[in-house]
Design goal:
Keywords: DNA-binding, Phosphoprotein, Transcription, Transcription regulation. One of its GO terms (molecular function) is DNA binding. One of its GO terms (biological process) is phosphorelay signal transduction system. The chain is built from ten helices and five strands. The termini are far apart. The chain has helices at residues 15-26, 40-50, 66-76, 93-99, 111-122, 130-143, 158-168, 173-180, 184-198, 203-212, and strands spanning 6-11, 31-37, 54-58, 80-85, 103-106. It is of the alpha/beta class. Strands 2-1-3-4-5 form a five-stranded parallel beta sheet, with helices on both faces. The protein folds into two domains: 6-128, 3-Layer(aba) Sandwich (Rossmann fold), CATH 3.40.50.2300; 153-212, Winged helix-like DNA-binding domain superfamily/Winged helix DNA-binding domain (Arc Repressor Mutant, subunit A, Orthogonal Bundle). α1 links the parallel β1 (6-11) and β2 (31-37).
Length: 220
Amino acid sequence: MIGPVIRVVVADDQELVRGGFAMILDAQPDIEVVGEAGDGRAAVEAVRALRPDVVLLDIRMPRMDGIEAAKVIAAETGCRVVMLTTFDQDDYVYDALYAGASGFLLKDVRRDDLVHAVRVVAAGESLLAPSVTRRLIGDMVSRARPRPAPAGLDALTARERETLELLGRGLSNAEIAGRLVVSEHTVKTHVSNVLSKLGLRDRVQAVIRAYESGLILPGS
C-alpha cells in the first residue's frame, strides 16, 4: 500500500538538470513534483506557496543562492531542504548544512539514489549513507572559518553523549544499538532526546554538532 504522497519542489538554474530530476521523481507513485524554480528567490516563493515536503536546492543560483534560500526556508517552514552540489567545486556545503539543510546530493546522483534520498529525507531521517555526509562535514569543519563553541552538551546524559558521538561517526541506528548493546527503539529514543535537547533539526545537524563540540575530530 502506498503511503502519503511526498510533495517536492526542484530548484536549479539549469533547465535540463531541473527537468531531469523532476521527470525521475514524478514517475514514482509516491512522489509528486508540485513546482520548479530557476533561482533561489523563486524557490523560496514556491515553497511558501506550495508547502512541499522536500525541496531540492542548487547551491549556485542567480538572484538568491541556495544557501540563502535554505536559511529562509528552514526558518519559515517545515520543508526539508536537500542541496544539489558538485562535490569537487562547491566549498559552501558546510554552510548550507549549518543553515538548516538536511543533507546534499551530487548532481550526477544515480536515479535510484535520488528517489531513495527524497523518501528518506521526507521521513525525517538522515540523507543517504551517513558515512558520506560524515566525510563531507569533517572536511568542511576542518576548513571552515571559526565559529562560536556550541553550548548545551551538559544537558545530555552520558548515554546521549555516546549516541551523539556515534552519530558523528556515521553509524546507523542498528550499528549504534550494537555498540551500546541496546534495542533500536532505545537508540531512536536517545537520538530524539539529543535532537530535542540541542535544538537540532535532524541527524545531519547532530553530526555537525558532534564535530563542533570536539566529540569527533576531522579525519578521526
